[in-house]
Amino acid sequence: MIILGIILIIIGLVVSVPVLWWIGVILLVAGAALAILGATGRAIGGRKHWY
After folding, report:
1. What is the number of other CB atoms lying within 10 angstroms of the CB of residue 17?
2. Is the backbone of residue 44 left (phi > 0), alpha (psi -120 to 50) or beta?
3. Which of 19, 25, 43, 45 is deepest in the core (most CB within 10 A)?
4. Biggest alpha carbon distance in the chain?
């Protein structure tokens, strides 16, 4: 999710499409939040690991 967010941000900046840039930022933030919560060992949505 984090990598997809970074790719969308780069494509959005190169092609000058702000929608792709915003979707990339949202995916990046959501992926980082899930990674941080997963690193604490807490179950997220009933699952301990997100692959």
Report:
1. 13
2. beta
3. 25
4. 39
- Can you tell me which residue has the tokens 């690991």? 49
Show the tokens assigned to 14. Answer: 């190169």
pLDDT digits (tens, 9 = 90+) for 1-36: 889 888 988 999 899 888 988 999 999 999 998 888
The pTM score is: 0.73
- Token reading at 2: 């984090």
Helix (H, G, I), strand (E, B) or coil at 12: helix
Tokens of 23: 């979707």
Structure tokens at 5: 């967010």
